[in-house]
Design a protein that fits this description.
Largest sheet: 8 strands, mixed
Number of domains: 4
Oligomer: single chain
Radius of gyration: 34 Å
Shape: globular
Number of strands: 23
Length: about 800
């Protein structure tokens, strides 16, 4: 058996080295397809492994809610602080734990100085202290780490039972203190309010988690200082915040459906809801579903769409199939040249099984070489994965999963690419193959090869259509009028405590005096931030709430000037307004039945149970979030306690200089706070990060698919050139020109590309029309997309066919006719 394998491998190597040009084409196509498959496999393996590494991952759930509103069903992760005690009482068999998570939190490194030496927990930092902005800070109970697995380098979960204790990840500890071993015993201050002692160190969280435990403080610290987070109390069932989250470890074999059914009656036992405006029910979502649940806020940096991942996997599979199809096309074209070899083997006693095994050995060796080259290509491409997926951290090419994947993909590819050529070669009649040693056996499955070329071009044209539509939509998004000025607006994030609020007006005024600044405004969030509070409201002194919710935007009198909002009717409210005037947008005015829009000015409305306010004006509609969403009804008003952000509209072409000038003023007014800013246009770009990456993925896949399709077409032209060798010779003897010969080959492939287009065009339209439905504001799919696709396909096909057919046309006809 071993000697037979060595014999097959030796012959395969001889075949490989004897036909270098043919094998170079095959290796190019196969290695490209295999490299794409490897990279896509790594992405999928990474995405589907999120938080699966926890020992009890299949039993960990998060409490979330669905609430009905007049605007439709909404989902959120916020829960009342009261809920944890009731849950523990009603379901004693379930282990519950709660956390409070803050975002964009300042961390001040105080070193070994004790809190008492600084004046206690309320003492502020100094300009000399190191200050950092961390994405997430967890306030957690010790029980959290019985649900989520971490490796403790120092201390254990019990340190979180006491107030003012903090746990850091190794990387964060080294960033703050140089060495994680030196971090324990030092002090840091969170949000300039809560001083804590570093009492534990854990290993850095892996890349495949949505729960990045970098800085974890004790939950008791939050309870002791909840007023520092702008809460006046933590009681009551009628409200909750998304920062507060509850997790549960279910007993083994507990039926989650039954548990969720019982939760339907949980809230009504403790809180009577207003079912005319809102009805909330709780349910548990599994930890494994957090990463893909687009209905809810995500704990990590992104939510992955399972549909997008499956689409990516399908693209990888089809590219591999296309590469294998190329091999079949090229192998069958080569079969004409190998026909004499097959005839000799059969005459010498070779069996059909031996011929099949030898052909598979030839294929297996070529696939193995392609696999090695594909590993090198994939390794070089790994640093660029972040541009086509949401994987930000580097992936490792050789892991337990990929070591298993490589032999599987080698075997599958060998069978896909080699089975049909092996069967075809083994069927050759030795008499026919020896007699037709130059032209090969007649027939030879030309129809199948044409079908394969049509399939390849259909897929490549489908990708061209997808790419053109995606590029058109992304270009539309990039240049769409959002109803605001977004290119030169700097957002400086502040805080809600008294130390910040007392100086914010002076800070804004000094910033506004900078020569590079057009205007500045104190706001809660930008018009197109994707955020905003929703509330019920009353209108025209009628106490009953309206049958829909509104979105609230808080800003001062310069809000419209800073963001370039235009008025449709009336005027903006003034800074010194004492009556509480508001501005609404056109959408709200229309929903209130205002005809004309100015008829709503002077009427009153109130937010929730607040005071009645006068409508001063109607602002033209502006986009609140991405173009995937429609424009909601908006109320814009003064709400000074929540105006913690400063929006600065620049008039300079040197934003870097302006940014440095603003930061210098910040450091004078707020030396104890870290400067935290972003440009609004960059924030808006984040709305479309997934679409931009998908568009780039289409671009790359399209280029690869076209390359592989052209290689497949080259293989078929090669086959036909051999089949038509005598026909070309006879035509040339009878006076046919080179152009006539090129036309002979091209006309058939023009038909094949046309058939492929007839298949790809309707499929592409349906797929991309469905994709565009995610956008409320979208482009239309015009005839130009399909015309460009057809012209590109024909151009590439003619170029590929022309290259090979010109060579056939220039050949000496005597060489092809001398054996007749």
């Amino acid at each position: 058996m071993l000697s037979m394998m060595i014999h097959y491998i030796t012959n395969a190597w001889k075949t490989l080295t004897r036909r270098k040009g043919y094998n170079l084409l095959n290796i190019t196509g196969l290695s490209t397809g295999l490299a794409v498959c490897m990279i896509i496999f790594l992405i999928l393996q990474h995405e589907f492994s999120y938080d699966r590494y926890h020992k009890n991952a299949d039993r960990v759930y998060q409490l979330v809610s669905k609430y009905w509103t007049p605007s439709g069903d909404q989902y959120q992760i916020s829960t009342p602080f009261e809920a944890i005690r009731a849950l523990r009482h009603d379901y004693p068999q379930v282990k519950f734990t709660e956390t409070f998570v803050t975002h964009s939190t300042q961390v001040t490194v105080m070193g070994t100085t004790t809190a008492a030496a600084r004046g206690g927990a309320a003492a502020g930092g100094t300009a000399a202290d190191q200050k950092y902005i961390e994405d997430q800070i967890y306030y957690a109970e010790p029980a959290l780490f019985s649900l989520f697995d971490v490796q403790w380098l120092s201390g254990d979960a019990s340190v979180l039972a006491s107030a003012n204790n903090i746990v850091l990840s190794r990387g964060i500890a080294e960033k703050y203190f140089g060495s994680w071993k030196n971090a324990v015993g030092n002090y840091i201050k969170l949000n300039d309010k809560i001083t804590g002692r570093v009492s534990g160190i854990i290993s850095d969280p892996p890349a495949n988690t949505d729960f990045s435990f970098q800085v974890v403080s004790s939950y008791q610290s939050f309870l002791n200082n909840y007023t520092a987070f702008n809460f006046t109390e933590l009681s009551g069932w009628g409200w909750g915040v998304s920062n507060h989250q509850i997790y549960a470890l279910l007993p083994e074999r507990m039926n989650i459906r039954s548990f969720n059914s019982s939760l339907a009656g949980f809230l009504p036992r403790y809180y009577k809801q207003d079912t005319t405006m809102e009805k909330t029910t709780y349910f548990m979502r599994p930890l494994s579903g957090v990463h893909f649940d687009v209905r809810l806020e995500n704990n990590g940096d992104h939510v992955s769409s399972e549909t997008s991942l499956y689409t990516l996997g399908l693209i990888g599979l089809l590219i591999l199939v296309m590469a294998c199809t190329n091999f079949v096309n090229l192998a069958t074209a080569l079969a004409v040249r190998r026909s004499k070899e097959v005839g000799v083997r059969k005459v010498m006693g070779g069996t059909r099984l031996q011929l099949i095994l030898q052909t598979l050995a030839d294929t297996g060796l070529l696939v193995l070489i392609s696999l090695v080259i594909a590993l090198l290509i994939a390794s070089a491409g790994l640093p660029y994965i972040k541009y086509v997926s949401q994987v930000e951290k580097p992936l490792h090419l050789l892991s337990r999963a990929t070591i298993f994947f490589l032999p599987v993909i080698w075997l599958v590819t060998t069978l896909l690419a080699g089975a049909w050529p092996a069967l075809q070669l083994s069927r050759f009649n030795p008499i026919d193959t020896l007699h037709h040693s130059l032209t090969g056996p007649r027939g030879g499955g030309l129809l199948l090869r044409r079908v394969l070329v049509v399939m390849q071009f259909s897929f490549s044209q489908l990708l061209v259509i997808a790419t053109l539509v995606a590029l058109s939509q992304m270009n539309y998004i990039r240049n769409a009028d959002m109803g605001i000025t977004r290119d030169t607006v700097l957002l400086v994030k502040g805080r809600g405590d008294s130390s910040f609020l007392s100086k914010r007006n002076a800070f804004r005024d000094e910033v506004e005096r900078l020569p590079d600044v057009y205007s500045a405004s104190l706001i809660h969030d930008a018009p197109s931030s994707g955020q905003g509070w929703e509330s019920d409201f009353g209108y025209d002194n009628i106490k009953a709430p309206q049958p829909f919710f509104v979105r609230l935007k808080f800003g001062d009198a310069d809000y419209a000037k800073t963001f370039g909002l235009q008025m449709a009717a009336g005027q903006w409210y003034s800074e010194n307004d004492s009556t509480g005037q508001v501005v609404i947008n056109e959408t709200l005015a229309r929903k209130l039945g205002a005809k004309p829009l100015s008829s709503v000015i002077g009427k009153t409305l109130r937010v929730g149970d607040g005071k009645w306010r006068t409508i001063a004006g109607v602002a033209k509609d502006f986009k609140n979030a991405s173009l995937k969403e429609g424009i909601p009804p908006n109320i814009l008003l003064l709400n000074r306690p929540f105006q913690t952000m400063t929006a600065i509209r620049l008039k300079s072409n040197n934003p870097g200089r302006s940014l440095r000038a603003v930061e210098a003023i910040w450091n004078r007014y707020y030396p104890e706070f870290a400067f935290n800013s972003s440009f609004m246009d960059e924030d808006i770009e984040k709305f479309y990060r997934q679409e931009q990456r998908l568009s780039l993925t289409y671009n790359i896949a399209t280029i690869l698919a076209i390359l592989i399709s052209c290689l497949g077409l080259y293989g078929l032209v090669s086959f036909m050139a051999l089949q038509k060798t005598r026909e070309v010779g006879i035509r040339k003897v009878l006076g046919a020109s080179v152009a006539d010969i090129v036309y002979l080959f091209s006309k058939e492939f023009t038909v094949l590309v046309g058939i492929a287009f007839l298949i790809a065009a309707p499929v592409g339209y349906i797929v991309m029309h469905h994709w565009l439905q995610d956008f409320v504001y979208r482009v239309s799919i015009g005839a130009g997309v399909f015309l460009v696709t057809l012209l590109v396909s024909l151009g590439l096909a003619w170029a590929t066919v022309g290259y090979k057919s010109i060579g056939a046309a220039l050949a000496n006809p005597a060489d092809s006719l001398k054996t007749e």
